[in-house]
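Progress report, Aim 2. The chain analyzed during this reporting quarter is listed below.
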Amino acid sequence: MTKTVIAGLDPNAPVLECRNLSLSYFTRSGEIPAVVNFNMTVMPGEAVGLVGESGCGKSTVALGVMNYMGSTGKVVSGQILYKGRDILSMTPEETRQIRGSEIAMVYQEPMASLNPSMKIANQLMEVPLLHEDVTRHEARQRSRDILEAVRLPDPDRIMNSYPHQLSGGQQQRLGICRALMLQPAILLLDEPFSAVEPFTRLGLYESFEQARQAHPSTTVLVTHDLREARRLAEFMVILDAGQVVQSGVPREVLANPATPYAERLIESQLS
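Predicted structure tokens for the chain:
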């Protein structure tokens, strides 16, 4: 496979590594393990799919990488290495600088990352204006270019609209656009296509693939959908009860399930 060259990243060194990572939530009843001894290596430009049923820990891994698990979540043990440095050892200020610019996340609910009272143009433009030395004209042109990359019709109308004036599929495309504006080193997607109808979902797949070609990024896709992971990811990790039960190239994993759980999951979706 040809290695994707991304500015600022060594194509021969992992951009993200999770080493023996264990994550838990703490309630009044005690500790609830969510992820146990999780290992993953992601190379620059690679697309990795984290797959499993609801509650298997896949979204918790993404939140752990963002170092944002809320008041009840905690990294119990292990490391999360970003460009060789443990995210967990960074200062709060270093974490804030990385989160959203070098590591960006797209959520299942698009309005989680969109401001309902701000026009789309301003929401897209503010990303490079805040983080880069660009003019408003340059920021506006980049915003228009990325709307075209995800195949949103009539970009000028979209940019002059508010989020509530757009469909769910268009809002989700905008969430991806906003995340890609800074060309992050890592793009995390947490079930980004599950809330839209199947026909719209296929269009979103195509838009996402085109956006990644225009703006190369390393991607970690969290999904319960094996077909989605097979299409969008080059490497697949299946989780069950917080543990990895199988990983590999999607074609090989789906053809040769290694555990009873993997076999049941594949049969339930692909048979």
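Strands lie at 16-27, 30-42, 47-51, 73-82, 85-86, 103-106, 186-190, 218-223, 235-240, 243-248. The chain has a mean pLDDT of 89. These observations will guide the mutagenesis work planned for the next reporting period.
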